Amino acid sequence: MDYSYNNGSTGKPAAAGKTLLLLIGWITAALSLIRYPYFFGVIAVIMGITASKNGSRAGLTLILASILFIATGLIFNEIFFSCLKQVIGI
Predict the structure, then answer these.
(1) For FRET with 39, which of 46, 49, 67, 89 sits at 20 to 30 Å CA-CA?
(2) CA-CA distance, 85 to 54, in Å (whole number)?
(3) pLDDT at position 4
(4) How do the domains of the chain map onto residue ranges?
(5) H helices within 1-90, ranges in order?
């Protein structure tokens, strides 16, 4: 199982790496709406930049969405968090 990550001869590890970066990025972007927008939002932006540098076109979408989620989270995170607490029942 000699996979090459740089030249993309098989594509499986590189595609899995991009997918993992994007998945982590979208999860942290969503978390930035609920709690700690600076922390989770910056992680999401970094994941988007890393995915873009690895050749994923979805990384730019993640970057833009993360920036919007940071702004929205800064304004509404207390409201979102209190609603989530009511739904969960904490």
Answers:
(1) 89
(2) 38
(3) 52
(4) 12-88
(5) 12-34, 37-53, 58-88
